[in-house]
Amino acid sequence: MRDDSTPTTDPLTPAALRQRIEAARGLHPVDLVLRGGTLVNVLSGELHRTDVAVHGGRVVGLGEGYEGREEVDCRGKWIAPGFIDGHMHVESTMLTLPEFARAALPHGTVAAILDPHEIANVHGIDGIRYILESREGLPLSAFIMASSCVPATHMETAGAALSADDLSPLFGEAGVIGLAEVMNFPGVVHADGGVLDKLAVAHAEDAVIDGHAPGLRGRDLSAYIAAGVGSDHESTQLEEAREKLRKGMRVVIREASPAKNLAALLPLVTPQNARRCSFVTDDRHPADLLREGHVDNAVRKAIGLGLDPVLAYQMASINTAEWFRLDEKGFGAVAPGFRADLLVLDDLKAVSIERVYVKGRLVAQAGEAIVELPGAPSTLPGSVHLDWEAFPGFAIPAEGERVRVIEIVPAQIVTERGEGHPLIENGLAEADPSTDLLKMAVVERHGKGSGVGLGFVRGIGLKAGAIASSVAHDSHNVVIAGTSDADMRRALEAIVEMQGGQVVVEGGDVKATLALPIAGLMSDRPIEEVRDAVEKLHEAYHALGGELNDPFMQLAFLALPVIPALKLTDKGLVDVEAFEIVDLWL
Hints:
- Helix 3 (117-123) packs across helix 4 and helix 12 packs antiparallel against helix 13 (309-315).
- 25% of the residues lie in helices and 28% in strands.
- It is elongated.
- Strands 1, 2, 3, 4, 5, 14, 15, 16 and 17 form a nine-stranded mixed beta sheet that branches.
- 58% of the residues are buried.
């Protein structure tokens, strides 16, 4: 497996080594000296005053006596390593990778570990290569994990299916550093041949293997870890995370837009075990990126909840770098030989970032990226292919009085099992907004038959109308919830017209939209425009009686059949814990 850090990695020739050594010895002026700051030393676990000397994109020395061609007075300020997001889906930001970089760099993110399985579920290997190509020329280092679960399960229809043979060549690509979250944990535990083939490829490449095992405990957890899966970011309960830590996993605390686990899991972190813990954002909404930040948001919250600041900065930098072996490439700390990816902060605990440097180059200042960023590669082909002649519609023939109901848990991606009594009219089961019982549909959109899974959901809160999205984890079919079949159909029509996006409909009228022409997942517009469009969607949703803070993110995860308890795919209602499709009627 190639381990090139980024497409712009400089070759370390003997001449370059000589220059670095001479700079470290102070034999000639260095490129940059940060004078008099207090270093957050994530290697020694200390805060100490020192100058930081930078030359050729690397830190070459700590201490006094260096002369710099550029010198920055950092007295009264803190110097820390840049932050690394250990697991995220850039597609969930709904931004291209360059636009994400523009938003994340001012918040101190200098590197991110990307699992492109959202776009891979739509476009397969071509989607992964699109993300790989999007890294070109970026100051933010983006590393790719080969997507392990495309599709996530056999109980849904994705746009592509990636086998071990499909993934194997990716490990020879620059920037591909491991196997992404192994979501099919039942497949690991029960030794499914296809899953084991992918794990074997990763082991053969000596690759890092990331995990995804919500609620997995006991012997099954031991089996999952014994298969070589070394991390997990899906814990929601303290004792669950403690067991994973005790059994050797790296516990990765997620503070995402739809799933906020930091407050629940932080009591696990102690000075004795903190080096086995880190932060990720997983799925981050554009408005949250602009308002709260990125990894810095998790650091700030952790310190606010009482975590020692040095431990928090370690969890956001060196801990993540060591898990992905990026410390060997100079990521994760401020020390001689490490990349000069570093932050200058006005306030350590508030994580108030004044300057961001990447390889010694100032890339963000006072909350703004100050470097020119490249555009994204040309847009992929259209990805919403609906056969209207084959489309069966949304009618649910009544087969009883009670149905299974997906119960939303606000601000979480897990759901609960519920029951409900739909209205029965003309032999059909219909939504009952008076009891918050809405009809839900997942429509296959990849040109593979336009099948429809139908069910009911409680917690959306609409009194009228419908909402729909082509972002529906992980197969990204079109997910719709509504009070009437007519509005649900109009919402689906709008998604097809936009070739992907999100929409609110009432009485046949489209009230708000966000077009997502890149794989039906991402916009080609600036983050501010995406945020404004999302806010208009939320306003239209709230006007129809909904009360969720982020209804479309919540909606998107109702189709994810690897997160308990009930979910809906184009093939039907899924009991995740039984790992099977179940009847809608009780």
